[in-house]
Amino acid sequence: MNKKNSKRPSETDWARIDALRDEDIDTSDIPELDASFFKNAVIRWPEPKATLTIRIDREVLAWFKAQGKGYQTRINAILKAYKEAHSNL
Q1: Cα separations in angstroms, 48 against 10, 55, 69
Q2: How far apart are CA 64 and CA 54, in angstroms?
Q3: Could you say which of 30, 62, 73, 75 is the most buried, measured as most Cβ atoms within 10 Å of its Cβ?
Q4: What b/e sequence results for 38-71 when a residue is b if at least 16 CB atoms lie within 10 Å of its CB, and e otherwise?
Q5: 10 Å Cβ neighbour count for 29?
Q6: First CA to last CA across the chain, in angstroms?
Q7: Would the CA dihedral through 86, 79, 52, 56 be positive or negative?
Q8: Distance (Å) of CA 52 to CA 42, 46, 55, 59
């Protein structure tokens, strides 16, 4: 786990996870993937984001930037949630 991406310490026992051998991992609830799965698999790449210039109040932009790295992604997520909440109007 990348400590830069977490504000709270991980509660996972990473040393225990790292010590596991492949044969110690219970995969009984995961179906085997055979050739037919990969024959019918479809790769779906995400749509590229559009680049634009937008006017935002300085205080709003400053607030998002103060939240740390990834502020543009958070702005996008908020706008997307707004769109989804209002798409059935």
Answers
A1: 32, 22, 20
A2: 14
A3: 75
A4: eeeeeeeeeeeeeeeeeeeeeeeeeeeeeeeeee
A5: 5
A6: 41
A7: positive
A8: 31, 18, 10, 20
Q: Record the tokens describing residue 72, joined without a space.
A: 């543009």
Backbone angles phi, psi at 7, to 5 degrees: -90, -25
And the tokens for 76?
């996008």
CA gyration radius, the chain? 21
Residues 22-73 have pLDDT tens digits of: 999 999 999 888 898 889 889 999 999 999 999 999 999 999 999 999 999 9
pTM: 0.52
